[in-house]
């Protein structure tokens, strides 16, 4: 199935720094979702986006639905150690209910 | 967010035996559930789409006779790994699809399968 390009693949940052990651697709999507996965756990939904240009926040997290509908961005401000994990984007197209997942961004926060 | 449970959370079995994993949507009815497989440090690989009251739809390369899916009710889907072999060892995760304008999917906590 289709897989989205997510970058960067991994990040090592100092506590307190801001983080940015993005997800791109060759197809237009109607819905973008962002998840965080801790080791040995299932992904947890962070933010859901449904309209092009939409900007949504969840605490220190902010995500945007790209105007072209082919990309999405996730920003984390003032990172803390518990932000460590793998972040996945997921997009849903016009037809069907399947979501396509990004390759993941592994985030390491150095105290 | 919505709660999806999975049982068991981990299982160890002998080669040749079958293992059943349950996925329950606890606070909404899900006509569709998804089953994923995840290898270490990799993304989620969709195995099949489980539809309540009808046959599951399998992704290319996934053996339907090997991975039996039953979506018996709007809150329960099961995945049975039949005649398991060591190469079936993996992390299996289900999700429940919520539709109705703001489509979303919520994941279960995953099941770690180890086949000896």
Question: Could you walk me through the main structural features you see in this protein, from its secondary elements to its overall organization?
Answer:
The complex is a heterodimer of chains A (111) and B (116). In chain A, 0% of the residues lie in helices and 53% in strands. Chain A has 111 residues and is mainly beta. By secondary structure, chain B is mainly beta. In chain B, 0% of the residues lie in helices and 54% in strands. In chain B, strands 2, 4, 5, 6, 9, 10 and 11 form a 7-stranded mixed sheet that branches. In chain B, strand 4 (32-38) and strand 5 form a beta hairpin. In chain B, 36% of the residues are buried. The model of chain B has no long low-confidence stretch (mean pLDDT 93). The chains are: A mainly beta (111), B mainly beta (116). Chains A and B meet through strand 4, strand 5 and strand 9 of A and strand 5, strand 9 and strand 10 of B.
What topology does this entry show?
The complex is a heterodimer of chains A (111) and B (116).
Chain A: E1 5-7, E2 10-14, E3 19-24, E4 31-37, E5 44-49, E6 55-58, E7 61-65, E8 71-76, E9 85-92, E10 99-101, E11 105-110
Parallel strand pairs in A: 2-11
Antiparallel strand pairs in A: 1-3, 3-8, 4-5, 4-9, 6-7, 7-8, 9-10, 9-11
Chain B: E1 4-7, E2 10-13, E3 19-25, E4 32-38, E5 44-51, E6 57-58, E7 67-73, E8 76-81, E9 90-98, E10 104-107, E11 111-115
Parallel strand pairs in B: 2-11
Antiparallel strand pairs in B: 1-3, 3-8, 4-5, 4-9, 5-6, 7-8, 9-10, 9-11
